[in-house]
Write a structure and sequence with these properties.
Layout lengths: L4 E4 L4 E6 L12 E5 L1 H14 L16 H8 L11 H14 L12 H12 L4 H8 L4 H7 L1 H4 L4 H12 L1
Helix pairs in contact: 4-5, 5-6
Length: 168
C-alpha cells in the first residue's frame, strides 16, 4: 500500500513495511524491505499516472470483477479497492515473460523474483544469512535450496581452485 512506503532519513533511502507474508501470515513481525531509488521513481510515476494517493499500489485493471466488487455493486455500495492477488501477479509475470520471448515463461511465478534476487545476491557474494534476511525466510534451508546452482561457483572449493589457478 502507498501508506507502507516510508522514508529512512538516516540513510536517505526508502523502505516498504511488509505487514504479513508467506512466512508471517498473521502479521506478527515488523518486517521492512529496502526500496531502491530507481524502484521508488517507478512507483511514483505509476502512482501519478494511475492517480493513486492511498491504498493498494498495484490494482486489477479490467478483466473479470472479483466477487467482493460484484456483491458491493449488487448492494449499491461503493466497491472496495482491491490489490492484486498472488495468482494475478503470477499471470502478469508469465504474460510479460512470454512477450519477451522467454522459453520458460510458463514456469514463472510471483515467487520467481524472490528466488532470482536470492541467486543474484549469492553471485554477488552475500552470505546465506544476508540473503535470508533480504528474502524474509525464517531459516537458511530455503536459501540453500534456491541458490544451489549459484553456490556451485561461490564456495570454498571454487575459491581454492581460483586461487591455485592464479598462482600457477
Amino acid at each position: 500500500k502507498v501508506e507502507h512506503l516510508q522514508p529512512d532519513a538516516h540513510r536517505e533511502t526508502w523502505s516498504v513495511w511488509v505487514p504479513f507474508s508467506k512466512t508471517d501470515q498473521e502479521g506478527q513481525g515488523d518486517d521492512y524491505r529496502h526500496v531502491s531509488a530507481a524502484t521508488l521513481t517507478r512507483i511514483r510515476r505509476w502512482l501519478a499516472a494511475a492517480d493513486i494517493t492511498e491504498g493498494y499500489v498495484f490494482r486489477p485493471i479490467g478483466g473479470r470483477k472479483r466477487a467482493e466488487v460484484v456483491q458491493a455493486e449488487a448492494e449499491c455500495r461503493e466497491p472496495p479497492v482491491l490489490g492484486l492477488t498472488a495468482k494475478e501477479v503470477a499471470r502478469i509475470f508469465r504474460q510479460r515473460a512470454a512477450a519477451a520471448g522467454l522459453d520458460h515463461a510458463w514456469t514463472i511465478s510471483g515467487h520467481s523474483t524472490r528466488i532470482g534476487t536470492a541467486n543474484d545476491l549469492m553471485r554477488d557474494g552475500a552470505s546465506t544469512g544476508e540473503i535470508q534476511l533480504a528474502g524474509g525466510w525464517k531459516g537458511a534451508e530455503m536459501v540453500i535450496a534456491y541458490t544451489r546452482k549459484s553456490r556451485a561457483g561461490n564456495n570454498a572449493v571454487a575459491r581454492l581452485r581460483r586461487s591455485n589457478a592464479a598462482g600457477d
